Amino acid sequence: METLEPGMWLVLGLVALLAGFIDAVAGGGGMLTVPALLSIGLPPHIALGTNKLAATFASSTAAWTYYKKKLFSPSFWRQSFIATLIGATGGTLVVDMLSTEWLEKILPLLILAAAIYTIWHPHPKGSNRSLPEKSASLTKKQWLQGISLGFYDGVAGPGTGAFWTVSNMALYRLEILMASGLAKAMNFTSNLTSLVTFAILGHINVILGLTMGVCLMIGAYIGAHSAIRFGARFIRPVFVTVVIILAIKLALQAWF
């Protein structure tokens, strides 16, 4: 990658700010940041690792905000934490074994598939502010969800927050704010796990990741507070609008 012009740093910062806001509101910020990093010439492995560094800032800020507002209970979701950590570690190790050429071809398709799914999959009608009862069935759901989504976040990442939100509403019948709070905490878990693994493997542009991370963190702070203040009526329109725009943009990049 050549030295970036000042204008490009500004563009990446603004993209990160918007992505942090979107990610805190409904998930899917990675559908902006990963293509942006790839577009400046970063190799796919470095783009994914740098995105994890930046995304960890945003997800930690959003998760902490939801926790302070009592929209997330860490002790209740302990099994989800463990499963997500294991899944994310496995996914990151798998992506490290993939060739750069293969990643360059498959990443746009994965991002596009995530965008299409989030548009056309019906939103579950979660309505509970209370946590589900603890049971063997609940534990199985937590492990299946954590392993699979943690693995996907380790392999690619874009859309993980949205997948967490939708599946939380479907599996546990949580209303969207509670579902978003859980999603942000689990997204932070997989981001941090993948970040440590990518760092060990040497796949991170630290300066770029930290710069975008600060912008993501600011966007996440604004987004999380906006979501909590305005609720589902605010979240759903923003989510659908952004994903439609991203789906069109990524389709043009991937096929034309």
UniProtKB/TrEMBL annotation:
TM region positions: 76-95, 102-120, 195-222, 234-255
InterPro entries: TM_pro_TauE-like, TSUP
GO-annotated cellular components: plasma membrane
Primary site of residence: membrane
Topology class, membrane: Multi-pass membrane protein
Pfam family, one: TauE
Organism of origin: Photobacterium lutimaris
Keywords, sorted A to Z: Cell membrane, Membrane, Transmembrane, Transmembrane helix, Transport
Family designation: Belongs to the 4-toluene sulfonate uptake permease (TSUP) (TC 2.A.102) family.
Name of protein: Probable membrane transporter protein
Places the protein is found: Cell membrane
